[in-house]
Amino acid sequence: MSKQVTSDKAITVYAPASMGNVGVGFDLLGAALAPIDGSLLGDRVMIEAADAGVHYSQTGPWAHKLPEDGKQNIVYQCAVFFVEKLNAKQGVAICLEKNLPVGSGLGSSASSVVAALYALNEHFEQPFDEQALLLLMGEFEGKISGSVHFDNVAPCYLGGMQLMLNTPNKVCASIPTFKQWYWVVAYPGISLSTAKMRDLLPPQYDKAVAIDFGRHLSAFVHASYQQDPKLAISVLKDVMAEPYRADAIPGYSHARAELETLGMLTTGISGSGPTLFSVTDNLETAEAAKAWLEQHYLSQAGGFAHVCQLDEQGTRRV
Ligand code: HSE
Questions:
Q1: Nearest CA to ligand 1 atom 1
Q2: How far apart are CA 14 and CA 136, in angstroms?
Q3: Which of 70, 111, 170, 239 could form a disulfide bond with 15, CB atoms 3.0-4.6 angstroms apart?
Q4: Three-class SS of residue 260?
Q5: Counting beta carbons within 10 angstroms of the beta carbon of residue 94, is it exposed (0 to 12), middle (13 to 18) or buried (19 or more)?
Q6: pLDDT confidence of residue 146
Q7: Which residues contact 240 (CB under 8 A, 6 or more apart)?
Q8: Phi/psi class of residue 125: alpha, beta or left (left: φ > 0; alpha: ψ in -120 to 50)?
């Protein structure tokens, strides 16, 4: 189980953190993140050929939060799936470098799954095409989060801002982004389970809420194509999840109000939280928001804040 990946023939893949929902598109919109200081905000997976079977190891700052039994890890399970599906004679040594906190709202499980499946697909000379691989990513990520939704795996894999289509022939489509925006993200250090945060949501919504949701999301997509940032910000509102999740995230509502005072254009929950995102087109304002969040929103060891832009590349070999 624990053969380390060491040779210079190893493939290394990086998969960026992502924000599910992006406030306005519950389960239907997601964006990949790149800190502007160039720091790493995503998991890496290293893979190389080995004796028969799957030899899994894990490392990195958040590896201690993963199950100790490697066989329970999703990356191990992705590798077993590949080896069995391809009936591979030779095995693989695969190592997960866990750089993202679990249960953070930054697409941590998606990052591990996407990096692993991308690396396996490269190692085995691409038996799966882009759509097939994406479907597989959604399926494996769903095993961890409790339900299949692509708003983390799609942007993590393909980069930029992705709109879910969920049609038989196409899972998602890339939409234009606002290159002048800074996305300040802050992870307070606590962990929240996506499944539990989904349980807070009502089973059904009022007709007026459904109409507002459709209007906001379609206006945001329209504004993105028109490159109209004012319109985009004015409709970047969450009527589906934030009203039911805000109170379950310590300090979120207070931070949201303070960030507005600091001049941030809008603030929302990244995925199912507790990470929040806040948008501005001014770098100085972004740095001030980051400093405020570091001082007031981070509550546990391991918390962090970053000024980001969107990662337009998505998952890649590094
Ligand atoms: N869109 C899902 C949710 C997952 O908000 O529950 C986000 O990571």
A1: 27
A2: 18
A3: 111
A4: helix
A5: buried
A6: 79
A7: 26, 201, 205, 209, 213
A8: left
User: Peptide bond before 155: cis, by omega within 30 degrees of 0?
Assistant: no
Length of the chain: 318
Cα angle: 235, vertex 240, 246; to 5 degrees: 95
Best substitution site from 28, 149, 200 to test ligand 1's pocket, by max atoms within 8 Å of Cβ?
149
Residue 260 CA to ligand 1 centre (angstroms) = 24
Using CB atoms within 10 Å of the CB of residue 314, give its burial: 0 to 12 exposed, 13 to 18 middle, 19+ buried.
buried
* CA 27 – ligand 1 centroid, Å: 6
Cα–Cα distance, 171 to 142 (Å, whole number): 15
Evaluate if residue 6 carries a pLDDT over 70. no
* Tokens coding 144: 């961890």
Closest to 96 measured CA to CA, from 128, 53, 138, 62:
62
To the nearest whole number, what is the mean pLDDT of the chain? 95
Pairing of strands 91-97, 54-59: parallel
pLDDT at 315: 98
